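4.2 Preliminary Data

To establish feasibility before requesting continued support, the project team ran the inverse folding procedure on a target of 173 residues. The structure was first converted into the token representation described in Section 3, and no sequence information of any kind was made available to the design step. The complete token record follows.
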């Protein structure tokens, strides 16, 4: 229902061009809409006017530029520097435990929301086979195990999906 309400409530404030930009960038309610409202208030523009729409558009552009700049500085430069000064033992442990825990949470969320038992069982079976049978048998593919699991699961899920049954009792006229 929110996907209906959001565009209706944002449009009078943002206008068509800023709406397009806002939905392409994302994080409208927390970042883009407040920046548009502050910009309109700063220059005394009323929502729904051409001046208000233009100020919202420029505010969204400014918010996006500031966001990208700070992401480059804090994540790109400082994040890389921080990873380089952290001891190798810590980063190895992080790779060993953090990535699987994040992926595990995402997988549980997908399983609960999609409710497709067949695909879930195929994924669990494929992962168990690859990690407990294939990798110990062929250790050189250990780095490719996740990719092999994903591709194999997708292929098996495609071929083992439930296909609509044709009604053979229909009379052809």
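Position-by-position output of the design step:
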């Amino acid at each position: 229902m929110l996907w209906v309400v959001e565009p209706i409530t944002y449009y009078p404030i943002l206008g068509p061009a800023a709406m397009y930009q806002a939905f392409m960038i994302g994080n409208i309610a927390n970042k883009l809409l407040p920046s548009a409202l502050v910009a309109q208030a700063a220059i005394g523009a009323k929502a729904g006017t051409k001046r208000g729409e233009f100020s919202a558009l420029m505010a969204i552009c400014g918010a996006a530029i500031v966001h990208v700049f700070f992401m480059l500085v804090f994540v790109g430069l400082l994040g890389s520097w921080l990873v380089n000064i952290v001891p190798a033992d810590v980063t190895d442990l992080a790779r060993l435990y953090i990535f699987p825990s994040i992926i595990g949470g995402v997988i549980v969320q997908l399983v609960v929301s999609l409710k497709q038992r067949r695909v879930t069982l195929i994924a669990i079976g494929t992962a168990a086979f690859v990690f407990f049978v294939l990798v110990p048998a062929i250790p050189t593919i250990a780095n490719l195990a996740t990719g092999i699991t994903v591709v194999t699961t997708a292929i098996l899920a495609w071929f083992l999906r439930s296909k609509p049954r044709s009604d053979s009792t229909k009379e052809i006229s």
